Amino acid sequence: MSNSESVALLPESAGEVAQTSNRSRKRSAVWQYFEELPDEGKAKCIHCDSKFAYHKGDDLHVRCTAHILNLVVQDGMETIRSAVEPVRDVIKHITSSSSRLQIFNTIPQQLNLKPKRGFNLDVSTRWNFMYDMLEEALEYKDALTHYANLQNIQGPNLEQWNLIERVCRFCWLMIIAAHFGVGLVIL
């Protein structure tokens, strides 16, 4: 019997024979996330369409860490939605008309900040866009809070701003992990 045909017997109560050949490795739980390509030794991730090489089913270098990282961050972002929504609402209010943007721009000038041409808005499917929006909002935190008070709209409170600062530090670490730990990846 060759190595590729080795068989392991389970206890009699199981009543089955498990194969440990290369063929069975391709059917492990990991393979539910991959589609085998017609090219010998190639597979494609069903989540991010990245192609990977494997050697007869022995190794599978999963560069799909970016996908896993993305899922972790997306899940974390769900927990802070209540803090992000007031920031998003104020930014939407400001950017919805040029006259509102002009009114807003008087505030940063008083605080020795640059006037804004507009703000980045987040995209629900791309967590790094939320990070960009929040980072920019933190830079203009005092101006955004003052504008929300002047316009009598619900802006973020101090506790929400503190949560956003902590989240931005966490997201920065995730961006570094995505770029340097996985390779240059756009999430």
UniProtKB/TrEMBL annotation:
InterPro entries: RNaseH-like_sf, Znf_BED, ZnF_BED_domain_contain. Pfam families: zf-BED. Keywords: Metal-binding, Transcription, Transcription regulation, Zinc, Zinc-finger. GO terms for molecular function: DNA binding; zinc ion binding. Residues 1-21 are annotated as: Disordered. Residues 28-55 form the BED-type domain. This is BED-type domain-containing protein.
